[in-house]
C-alpha cells in the first residue's frame, strides 16, 4: 500500500520538471481513485473463485508495473498510466489482503488480525509519503531511487505471498461484471449519514495526499520534502489511531465524535492557511486524521451491521465507491479553483466545505442517530 502514496511529496518536483499546473496535480492524483473504483467493482469477488494468492500476486505485478512507469519518466502519459495501475493494485489489495489476513489467523485471534490488517493498510499509506520525502530530500535521484526501493519491497512481498498457504478452494467461476450499486430503502437512513461522514473524511485525505505539499511550499514556506512527507504520514497515523479507538466510543458515538473532530481539524487547517502558521497545519492534520479514522470505521461497521446479509457486500461496495469518489473529484475542484483564485483561496474554500459537511453530519446524527428510522418502523 505504501507504493500508492509515494508520489505525494514528489508532485512539486514533477511540476517543475514537466511544467504543469496545480490543476494537473489533482487530475494525476484523481486517476488513481478511478483505478481503485474499477478494481473494486470488477474484481472485488475475484479471489473467492481464483484464490487469495493469485489475486494478491496480480496486485503486486500491477504495483511493480506502476513503479516501472514512474522510472521511465515518460512525461504525463507515464504518470497517468502509473497512477491507474497503482489504483488497480490498491483495489485488488483492499479487500483480498484483509480477508486473507483474517482467514489465516486462528479463530481466537480473528479480531486482532482485523486490527493488524487495518494498521498494515493505513500504515502503508502513511509510510509511502514519509519514505519518498526522506529519499527525495536527502538521497540522490529524487524521482528514481524511491521507485527502485518500491520494487524491492514488492519483491519481498511476492516472496511472502508465495510462502503463505491458500485459504480458498479454487475453481469457482466468478463472472467479471460490475457489482451492482444499490442501497435497500430500509437502510438508507443509516447509509446516508455514514456515507456523508466518509465523504468528508476521504475528501480530507485526498487534500493531504495531493496538494498539501503544495500548501506547505507556497503558503507555509516549507521546501523540505521530508517534512512534507511527514505531515502526510501524520494524517494516516492519526487515522489509524482513530480507527483503533473506535470500539472505546461505541459505533454511534464514534460516528458523531468522528465528524465533530474532523470539523475541528479542518478549522485548524483553515486557520493555518489564513495565517501561514505551520503548527496549525500540523495540528489540523493530526486532529482531522483522528476524526476521519473514528468516523470511517464507525460508518463501515454500522452499515455492515444493518445491511441484509445477502446484500452486505453490495452495500459495502457502494459505500467504498462513494469514499473513493470523495478522495478524487473534490480535489480536482481545488486544482481548478487554484488556477483562478490561487492555492490559498482554493484550500480555504475546500476546507470550509469539508468542515461544514462534517459538522452538519454530526448535527444530523445528534438529532436522529443512524438507523433510527428502521428501529421505529420495526
From TrEMBL:
GO CC terms of this entry:
plasma membrane
Query: Do the record's keywords include Repeat?
Result: no
Recite the UniProt keywords alphabetically: Cell membrane, Membrane, Transmembrane, Transmembrane helix, Transport
Membrane-spanning ranges? 20-43, 55-78, 84-105, 112-139, 145-165, 186-205, 225-242, 254-287, 318-341, 348-367
Q: Which PROSITE patterns match?
A: MFS
Subcellular locations according to the entry: Cell membrane
Q: Which Pfam families match?
A: MFS_1
Fetch the Gene3D superfamilies from UniProt.
Answer: MFS general substrate transporter like domains (1.20.1250.20)
Q: Where does the source fall among the domains of life?
A: Bacteria
Main localization category: membrane
Give every Major facilitator superfamily (MFS) profile domain span: 1-372
Q: How does it sit in the membrane?
A: Multi-pass membrane protein
Please indicate if the UniProt record lists Cell membrane as a keyword: yes
Question: InterPro entries of this UniProt entry?
Answer: MFS, MFS_dom, MFS_trans_sf, MFS_Transporters
The entry lists its GO molecular-function terms as:
transmembrane transporter activity
- Indicate the segments annotated as coiled coil, or none if absent: none
PANTHER family linked to this entry: MAJOR FACILITATOR SUPERFAMILY MFS_1, RESISTANCE PROTEIN MDTM, PUTATIVE-RELATED-RELATED
This protein's name: MFS transporter
Amino acid at each position: 500500500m505504501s507504493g500508492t502514496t509515494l508520489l505525494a511529496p514528489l508532485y512539486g518536483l514533477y511540476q517543475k520538471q514537466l511544467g504543469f499546473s496545480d490543476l494537473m496535480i489533482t487530475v494525476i492524483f484523481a486517476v488513481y481513485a478511478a483505478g481503485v473504483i474499477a478494481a473494486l467493482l470488477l474484481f472485488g469477488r475475484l479471489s473467492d473463485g481464483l484464490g487469495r494468492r493469485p489475486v494478491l500476486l496480480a496486485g503486486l505485478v500491477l504495483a511493480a508495473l506502476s513503479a516501472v512507469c514512474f522510472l521511465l519518466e515518460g512525461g504525463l502519459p507515464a504518470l497517468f498510466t502509473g497512477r491507474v495501475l497503482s489504483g488497480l493494485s490498491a483495489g485488488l489489495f483492499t479487500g483480498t489482503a484483509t480477508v486473507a489476513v483474517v482467514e489465516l489467523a486462528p479463530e481466537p485471534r480473528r479480531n486482532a488480525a482485523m486490527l493488524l490488517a487495518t494498521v498494515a493498510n493505513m500504515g502503508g499509506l502513511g509510510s509511502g509519503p514519509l519514505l519518498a520525502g526522506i529519499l527525495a530530500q536527502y538521497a540522490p535521484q529524487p524521482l528514481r531511487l524511491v521507485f527502485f526501493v518500491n520494487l524491492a519491497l514488492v519483491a519481498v512481498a511476492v516472496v511472502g505471498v508465495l510462502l503463505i498457504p491458500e485459504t480458498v478452494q479454487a475453481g469457482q467461476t466468478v463472472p467479471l461484471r460490475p457489482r451492482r450499486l444499490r442501497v435497500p430503502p430500509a437502510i438508507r437512513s443509516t447509509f446516508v449519514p455514514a456515507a456523508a461522514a466518509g465523504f468528508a473524511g476521504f475528501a480530507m485525505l485526498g487534500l493531504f495526499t495531493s496538494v498539501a505539499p503544495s500548501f506547505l511550499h507556497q503558503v507555509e514556506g516549507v521546501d523540505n520534502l521530508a517534512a512534507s512527507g511527514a505531515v502526510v504520514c501524520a494524517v494516516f497515523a492519526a487515522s489509524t489511531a482513530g480507527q483503533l479507538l473506535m470500539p472505546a466510543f461505541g459505533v454511534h458515538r464514534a460516528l458523531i465524535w468522528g465528524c465533530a473532530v474532523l470539523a475541528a481539524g479542518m478549522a485548524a487547517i483553515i486557520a493555518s492557511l489564513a495565517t501561514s502558521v505551520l503548527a496549525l497545519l500540523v495540528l489540523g492534520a493530526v486532529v482531522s486524521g483522528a476524526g476521519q479514522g473514528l468516523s470511517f470505521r464507525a460508518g463501515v461497521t454500522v452499515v455492515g451491521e444493518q445491511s441484509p446479509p445477502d446484500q452486505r457486500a453490495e452495500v459495502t461496495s457502494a459505500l467504498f465507491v462513494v469514499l473513493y469518489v470523495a478522495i478524487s473529484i473534490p480535489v480536482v475542484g481545488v486544482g481548478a479553483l487554484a488556477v483562478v483564485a490561487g492555492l490559498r483561496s482554493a484550500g480555504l474554500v475546500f476546507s470550509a466545505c469539508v468542515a461544514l459537511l462534517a459538522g452538519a453530519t454530526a448535527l444530523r446524527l445528534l438529532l436522529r442517530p443512524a438507523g433510527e428510522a428502521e428501529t421505529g418502523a420495526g
